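Hi everyone,

Forwarding the result from last night's run.
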Amino acid sequence: MRSPGSAAQYLPEDRGLDALRAAAGGCQGCPLYADATQTVFGHGDPGAPLMLVGEQPGDQEDRAGLPFVGPAGRLLARALDDAGIDPALTYQTNAVKHFKFTRKGGKRRIHQKPSRTEVVACRPWLLAEIEAVRPQVVVCLGATAAQSLLGAAFRVSAQRGEAIRFPSSVDVRVEPEPIVVATVHPSSVLRDRSDAHDEAYKLFVADLRSARNVYAH
């Protein structure tokens, strides 16, 4: 019997993106669904060579129902352009499909990092998206996304920008298995107000360019 603390029990028999998106709308695989406005499923080219995986929806994404429409998404769009990546050839999603937040001052919703339990509970949706899209490269944006596929011990700071074989411990029915490239989340670049901001952005673009070079050959 499937554990109630997992999205696996909500996966439909039809594993096409439209069916997955519809089914994800009713997911109660972890407690995050209760406070979020809606499930924010992936969006983009259903046959994209490049899948971009973030952490979770932010406040604006939660309201709009689409990933990467907030400030970090705008920075990501600029970085994709600078890296020579056509956003129309990407599929964009998150490791966790519901917005986790705490309230400040009664109204303002402040992002909270999802727990390992919540990430694992939501992973069946991400794996189903990978199987449906069959990307050549999966770019993990930030530690949460990277660890959802590469394990809790993975450190983005140590292996960012590297082409990594898809882990054998993760069961996906895709041949050939995609390459994984990890980098920072665009929100971390956005928050960097130091003198190193420009360098942080350049490194982010360089990581995206590395991912592009994998599928371009």
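Residues 197-215 form the longest helix (19 residues).

Cheers,
N.
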